[in-house]
Every structure is written in structure tokens, then in C-alpha cells.
């Protein structure tokens, strides 16, 4: 009989434990979710950027599936973030604007009394994964709790399913003494050395977490503060891109801003460091990596030509880079044209993790697993919806995408915009007058959806003053 001790030694030599991970790799895959703030459709090389340099992100896209019609659930941040974590449309949540939103006291319509927090009665994505045996950590921008209200402390990430919170608080952008540079004034994040950059510091924390060793699969939810303003980057990168701008031929009308380019490079460095750490630990093949954004970039030069940008109802404000890498399941370099949205991540990750669905929670999400595995080329869903009963850079609106058609309804006067996105992805020609029956069909669907979700509508403002309608006592966000 073969000596069992010898067999054991042979096994250990042939298959050593790698890094600091547990002796038995978990069957459930790990999840690294990377959410970028104010990310434009055209900010990365794989979507055509030439001034910005994103080799690590481009490599990630080449190793996973790119969704060419991937959408945020809102054109501003807080509602989009809530939709990802809940699997529900902002309209259903009644959380429909960034916290605390703009104020237009003399505008034509009054904004409804909307939510500024997520109910504790809901089971969020991290809570569902935690129930399934996952460790959960949050890093970066939270922006999902009220400012200065009595229950302020009850809505940190650790109150909503994350075991650890590093950097998340009420802020929608860095407001510490140094902004993107030390000191940061953020929970569980030391200020480090003078001159340290926030994206680097948060990435250090993510790397430390990954290398900590654990017996559970994990969700690492990295919600970057970048690329939100104020635009700041390390001096050496500002100098690098200032030099590059002098000779750059800007045929695509990219945003040639050295500070923002430096922020993009730091983002790309961060993604590269995380991917390298997964490889070093020997867990890359058992880790799903997702990369997307919360809304469009903060200028029309971040959209690769799409109309509008952050805050606008058009494609540039809501279409996002949307990448999923699922090793062994998703064909590297695959591209999918099916329209998908932020609410879909919740049911998708539950299915990937082999956990039961929670349809009473992720009511507006659809699992993307059939698309990721190639088992299907379509989803059992026809329409995507948006609802924004607020004032921003655009006036209040609702929108529906149905197949290749998109309808926008402006709430102030009921004006309609209809686009055929297949023929006109840049929304240059309003077809509402040319195809009135199609416009009316989509408007009916949009109204029926608002009723089904209990979407809050605006009312005539008794204080309406045409001369003062655009006054906004709050600073722009």
C-alpha cells in the first residue's frame, strides 16, 4: 500500500497554497465591483479615448464581456448607486436625485418629497451575499445618507450589509482639507504622508484587504471618488499630460485636460494593481470583476460623441462603460449589444454566487448570466426606464428605451423627443412628429410603468416666477 504521508507531501509540492488565501479555495467566486464616479462613455481606450491612457482597463475589457448598451439607472449619482445595491429603479425607491439635490424654489414645477436614504427594511446586495457566506467590504464614495439629520449614523455602509467601511460617508466628492490629496478626513482611512493621492490611498486599503487572508468568498465594492471634481492629479502626471496636449491632434474632440487625464491614469493604475494582486494570490480565476460608472462624465467631451453628459436626459448622461469578467464562463473579448442597466447587477451576482434569487428585493433587475455564458442572446425584458422629477442641467423628464427606440418626455410642457438609436445613436433627429404613433405607444408604456412603480410626480409650483425660475440657492453638484 502506498504510504499516505508520501502522497500528501507529493500533493503539497504539486499544488502549493498560494499567498495568504485559505487552504481550500472557496467554491463561490469572489467579486470585485469597481464603480467609477462621473465616468463618460468615451473615457477609456477600448471606447476610443486617445488622450487618456488606460492600458489596464483596456486589458480588463479584453478579458471579459463589454456591454455596448450598458446604462446607469440615473444621470446623477445617488439614485444610480441605490439602484445597484437594491436592484430597484430609483422611481420605485423614491430616491430620485443626488443627495441633497438642487433647489429651484421658483421653477414651474415643485419637486416631490423624495427619499434621501435606503430603507433598512430592504435586503441590499451586500446583505444578500453576506447571508450566503460572503465577507463584504466597502471602499470610497457612499453618498447614500442624509446630511446633518438625526439618523445620520444609521446609514453608513456598515448599516447596510458591509462588514467594513473605508472612506464612505455623506460626501459626494472629497471635501477633506486636502481634497484628493492628504489629509482626507475619511472613516477608517489614515491620512498617510503629505502629498499622498486619494485614489492611491484607497487602493492601498483594497490591496491590504485582498492580502489579509480569509476563509470566505468576498465582495470588494470599490466605489471611486474619482473622476468627480475637483479635478486634481499628482504634479508629475499633470506635467506629463500638459506636454502631451501640446502635440495631441484632437480629432475626436476629447476633453484634453491634463488634471483629468492624470486622474484617469491613477484610476487605471488602481485597476491594474487590483488585478495584479488577484493574480499574485492565485485567486484571479475565481474572481468576477465588474467595472462601470454611476452617470456620464462632467462634460460633453467625455461621451465619444453621444449627446449630453452628466445630468442630461440623453445618452451621454446615462450610457456607461459596462464590463464583466467572469473567468471560465465569459468569453474573453466578447461584446453584447443587449440593453442592460445597473439594477441587473444584484440578481446577476446572486446567480453567479449560486445563491437563490430574491425577486421581492431586486424587483427591477434581470440576471445577465445567460448573456455572460452565451446561453442566450436576448433577455426576457423589453424596456428600460428612467424617471427624474428634478431640475438639473436638464429640466425634469422621464424616458424609456424599447428595442432601438428611445422616448424622452419633458414634464414641464409634455414635449416629446423620439430617437431611433440604431440609425441615430447620437440623437441628432427628433422623430416624434414623424412617427406620432410610435411616440404615443412608448409614452403609454412609460406612464403605465410610472403607475406600477409608484413614481412620484411633480406638481405645479404656486411660487413659480418665470424671471427667477433658474435660480438655485445650492451650489451645483
From TrEMBL:
Instruction: Please list the residue ranges annotated as the Sulfatase N-terminal domain.
Output: 29-354
The record, for Gene3D superfamilies, names: 3.30.1120.10, Alkaline Phosphatase, subunit A
Indicate what this protein is called per its UniProt record. Answer: Arylsulfatase
Signal peptide coordinates: 1-22
Region annotated Disordered sits at 455-477
Its keywords, alphabetically, are:
Calcium, Hydrolase, Metal-binding, Signal
Q: Which cofactor does it need?
A: Ca(2+)
GO molecular function list: arylsulfatase activity; metal ion binding
Q: To which protein family does this belong?
A: Belongs to the sulfatase family.
The lineage is:
Bacteria, Pseudomonadati, Kiritimatiellota, Kiritimatiellia, Kiritimatiellales
Could you tell me where the Basic and acidic residues compositional bias lies? 464-477
Instruction: Show the SUPFAM superfamilies listed in the entry.
Output: Alkaline phosphatase-like (SSF53649)
One Pfam family linked to the record? Sulfatase
Amino acid at each position: 500500500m502506498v504510504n499516505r504521508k508520501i502522497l500528501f507531501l507529493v500533493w503539497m509540492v504539486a499544488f502549493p497554497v498560494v499567498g495568504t488565501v485559505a487552504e481550500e479555495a472557496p467554491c463561490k467566486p469572489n467579486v470585485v465591483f469597481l464603480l467609477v464616479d462621473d465616468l463618460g462613455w468615451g473615457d477609456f481606450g477600448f471606447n476610443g479615448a486617445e488622450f487618456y491612457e488606460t492600458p489596464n482597463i483596456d486589458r480588463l475589457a479584453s478579458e471579459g464581456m463589454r456591454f455596448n448598451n450598458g446604462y446607469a439607472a440615473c444621470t446623477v449619482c445617488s439614485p444610480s448607486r441605490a439602484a445597484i445595491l437594491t436592484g430597484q429603479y430609483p422611481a420605485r425607491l423614491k430616491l430620485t436625485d443626488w443627495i441633497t439635490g438642487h433647489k429651484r424654489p421658483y421653477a414651474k414645477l415643485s419637486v416631490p418629497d423624495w427619499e434621501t436614504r435606503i430603507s433598512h427594511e430592504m435586503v441590499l446586495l451586500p446583505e444578500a451575499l453576506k447571508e450566503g457566506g460572503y465577507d463584504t467590504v466597502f471602499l470610497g464614495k457612499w453618498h447614500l445618507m442624509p446630511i446633518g439629520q438625526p439618523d445620520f449614523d444609521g446609514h453608513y455602509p456598515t448599516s447596510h450589509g458591509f462588514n467594513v467601511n473605508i472612506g464612505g460617508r455623506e460626501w459626494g466628492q472629497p471635501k477633506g482639507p486636502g481634497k484628493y490629496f492628504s489629509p482626507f478626513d475619511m472613516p477608517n482611512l489614515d491620512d498617510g504622508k503629505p502629498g499622498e493621492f486619494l485614489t492611491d490611498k484607497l487602493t492601498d486599503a483594497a490591496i491590504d484587504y485582498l492580502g489579509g487572508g480569509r476563509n470566505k468568498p468576498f465582495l470588494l465594492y470599490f466605489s471611486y471618488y474619482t473622476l468627480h471634481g475637483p479635478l486634481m492629479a499628482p504634479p508629475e502626471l499633470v506635467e506629463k499630460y500638459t506636454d502631451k496636449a501640446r502635440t495631441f491632434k484632437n480629432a475626436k474632440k476629447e476633453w484634453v485636460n491634463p488634471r483629468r487625464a492624470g486622474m484617469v491614469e491613477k484610476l487605471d493604475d488602481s485597476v491594474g494593481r487590483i488585478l495584479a494582486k488577484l493574480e499574485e494570490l492565485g485567486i484571479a480565476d475565481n474572481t468576477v470583476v465588474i467595472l462601470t460608472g454611476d452617470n456620464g462624465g462632467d462634460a460633453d467631451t467625455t461621451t465619444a460623441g453621444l449627446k449630453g453628459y452628466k445630468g442630461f436626459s440623453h445618452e451621454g448622461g446615462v450610457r456607461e462603460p459596462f464590463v464583466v469578467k467572469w473567468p471560465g464562463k465569459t468569453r474573453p473579448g466578447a461584446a453584447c449589444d443587449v440593453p442592460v442597466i445597473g439594477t441587473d447587477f444584484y440578481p446577476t451576482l446572486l446567480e453567479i454566487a449560486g445563491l437563490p434569487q430574491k425577486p421581492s428585493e431586486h424587483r427591477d433587475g434581470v440576471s445577465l448570466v445567460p448573456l455572460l455564458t452565451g446561453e442566450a442572446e436576448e433577455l426576457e425584458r423589453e424596456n428600460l426606464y428612467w424617471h427624474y422629477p428634478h431640475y438639473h442641467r436638464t429640466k425634469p423628464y422621464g424616458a424609456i428605451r424599447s428595442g432601438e427606440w428611445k422616448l424622452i418626455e419633458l414634464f414641464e410642457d409634455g414635449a416629446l423627443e423620439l430617437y431611433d438609436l440604431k440609425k441615430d445613436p447620437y440623437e441628432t433627429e427628433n422623430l416624434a412628429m414623424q412617427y406620432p404613433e410610435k411616440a404615443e405607444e412608448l409614452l403609454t408604456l412609460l406612464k403605465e410603468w410610472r403607475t406600477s412603480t409608484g413614481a412620484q410626480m411633480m406638481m405645479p409650483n404656486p411660487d413659480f416666477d418665470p424671471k427667477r425660475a433658474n435660480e438655485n440657492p445650492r451650489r451645483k453638484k
